[in-house]
Amino acid sequence: AAAGLSYVGAYVINTYKSYDNFLQDKYAVLPAVIIICVAVVMFIIGLIGCCATFRESRVGLGLFLAIILVIFIAEVSAFVLGFVYREKVKTDVQGTMRSVFEKYDGKNPESTVVDYLQEQLRCCGVKNYSDWTTTQWFNSTGNNSVPLSCCRRDTKNCTGRLDQPQEL
User: Fold this and answer.
1) Are 139 and 101 contacting, i.e. CB atoms less than 8 angstroms apart?
2) Which InterPro entries does UniProt cross-reference here (predicted)?
């Protein structure tokens, strides 16, 4: 279990690097760091449990049980906090994404991240393609279209025009 948690934590941290322009709050990676710390603690606790079992120590097994109960309580608390604050996180991420979309010009690093995000997640805009109509880029191009990264992968001649929403 500790190895699995370590992998998940490292994967989240690695993935965070691709989306760090959207997650300007550096505390967004904190859950991944906590997962890795929990993995290390779980490994140590597992060793305590194994040693207590091999020695058939009542004190060691009692300590192992107490630690497992504390971890269970911490997991339930983390779940409840995640459930309670999910809307705040959603609002914060959407606000940050909107500000990054406002900076889109097709050339700067934020634009590259926006294109990458839209291609990887197969989406367009924060909620849908109409989000682009309020950006400076949309108004400056004057061609009533969204970036080509909004186009579906299976369409061949997509121009990003809003009069062809089936291609987005």
Assistant:
1) no
2) Tetraspanin/Peripherin, Tetraspanin_EC2_sf
